[in-house]
Design brief:
This protein has 438 residues and is of the alpha+beta class. It contains 12 helices and 18 strands. The chain has 2 domains: 276 residues, FAD/NAD(P)-binding domain (3-Layer(bba) Sandwich); 147 residues, Elongation Factor Tu (Ef-tu), domain 3 (Beta Barrel). The strands form 5 sheets. It has a 6-stranded antiparallel β-sheet with strand order 10-11-14-15-9-16. A 5-stranded parallel β-sheet has the order 6-2-1-7-18, with helices on one face.
């Protein structure tokens, strides 16, 4: 029975490498570059589109806990990400190109992975194992097929931030620092005075945006809100959001600026810088005009403009079980953002879980379902069992984990982390004794 992995993004690449690494032959289908998504820039596998940040590594953060769990589970792409990290304080950020190039090389050179550069728009669930990892940019024809299978049509919109050439930054108008001096100075900060901010805010809220079919504010995912939409919610909204100056002391004045834009390295050389939190659907000419009002970006060379795109995901609690297979089609599995998970690491880890369960399905053995007290288990339980319908996209957060008693939020979260680590270690120890894998 053939195993077909559809989609060569983050989740699909993880599934293919995991299955091939366990000795199973895989057909990996990727429609790029012959069929464009409108957002990807290449045909490489595991291309990072929205940002180069995989978020915090700190165990005080839910994303940090998820990374630790993912590494214990043997997630291939997390290991590769660590090899290509770039400085970003407590966050794990990677060199986009080096990361995707290594993933591509590993996939193209693996003897058990057969590449199919073509669009898949229907699934044979009788004769093949299918693992759908088409992510938020599922083609219209495949989306139509899935809608026919499940009778569900859900989607939301998110946006990508622009990237500038580091050499075009006016360094005399910027300073290097991490918030509260916590780090090695991994961010370039572009301060604005109250007057400069006022001008910037006014031009931003009045700038022309690209019209997107079926666009609606209610369909914007919280963490990918376009910067102009945040600005329209109030004059100070940006100053409490992506332009928050708190903890960033400008050495030129010895105090916090009125507002600050942070730039983060997009590659290991630091020649490309992304505007942190500046996802946008402004027209490209408007992006150059409005963002150049930020003093340090007055002469900025925009090497990639921000874009907005429609994301597709399933109403998973009605469709998918905790093994990440379809309830009504046992040979059909899903992983990544199409399940309603949001985030790079979430996609990687779900791909690893799906691959393990495909192998165990073929061997007619017990599926791997992690305890809901772990971050990975909590995420999967939410999208398959506990989440409300219609499902809203979810990323790693401590609210997914069962409650504990503690003195305040920080203490409770620490106890959740401690319990999650203990439960996962115990689970994996027993699993390896019983099943001799992982």
């Amino acid at each position: 029975m053939k195993i077909r992995v559809i989609g060569g993004g983050i989740a699909g690449s993880e599934v293919a490498l995991s299955l091939a690494g366990s000795g199973l032959s895989v057909e990996l289908y990727e429609m790029r570059p012959s069929v464009s998504t409108g957002v990807h820039n290449s045909g490489d596998f595991a291309e990072l589109v929205c940002s180069n940040s995989l978020k915090s590594e700190s165990l005080e953060n839910a994303s940090g806990l998820l990374k630790e769990e993912g590494l214990k589970l043997g997630t291939h792409l997390l290991k590769i990400a660590l090899k290509h990290r770039v400085p970003a304080g407590k966050a794990l950020a990677v060199d986009r190109r080096a990361f995707s190039e290594e993933v591509t090389r590993l996939i193209e050179s693996h003897p058990l992975i057969s590449l199919k550069r073509e669009e898949v728009y229907e699934l044979d669930t009788e004769n093949h194992i299918n693992v759908v990892c088409t992510g938020p940019l599922t083609s219209e024809r495949l989306e139509s097929f899935l809608r026919g299978m499940f009778g569900e049509d859900l989607f939301f919109f998110d946006a990508v931030a622009p990237i500038v050439d580091a050499e075009s930054i006016l360094t005399e108008k910027a300073f290097v620092a991490d918030r509260y001096s916590n780090g090695d100075g991994d961010y370039i900060n572009c301060p604005l005075t109250q007057e400069e901010y006022s001008v910037f805010w006014r031009e931003l809220v009045e700038a022309e945006v690209i019209e997107v079919e079926n666009f609606s504010d209610r369909l914007l995912f919280e963490r990918c809100q376009p910067v102009e939409e945040i600005a329209r919610s109030g004059f100070d909204a940006l100053r409490f959001g992506p332009m928050k100056p708190v903890g960033l002391i400008d050495p030129a004045t010895g105090r916090e600026a009125y507002a600050t834009v942070q730039l983060r390295k997009e590659n290991s050389q630091g020649t490309l810088l992304g505007l942190v939190g500046f996802q946008t659907r402004l027209k490209w000419g408007e992006q150059a005009r409005v963002f150049s009002l930020i003093p340090a970006l007055k002469e900025a060379d925009f090497v990639r403009y921000g874009v907005m795109h429609r994301n597709t995901y399933l109403n998973s609690p009605l469709i998918i079980d905790p093994q990440l297979s379809a309830r009504d089609y046992r040979r059909l599995f899903f992983a990544g953002q199409i399940t309603g998970l949001e985030g790079y690491v979430e996609a990687m880890v779900s791909g690893r879980i799906a691959a393990i369960n495909v192998k165990r399905f073929l061997e007619d053995r017990e599926s791997l379902v992690l305890p809901p007290t772990t971050m990975t288990g909590g995420l999967i339980e939410h999208i398959t069992v506990a989440g409300r319908t219609p499902l809203k996209p979810v990323y790693a957060n401590f609210g997914l984990l069962p409650g504990v008693k503690g003195r305040g939020k920080v203490d409770r979260n620490r106890k959740k982390v401690s319990r999650a680590r203990e439960d996962l270690d115990l689970f994996l120890e027993r699993w390896r004794l019983d099943h001799n894998d992982l």
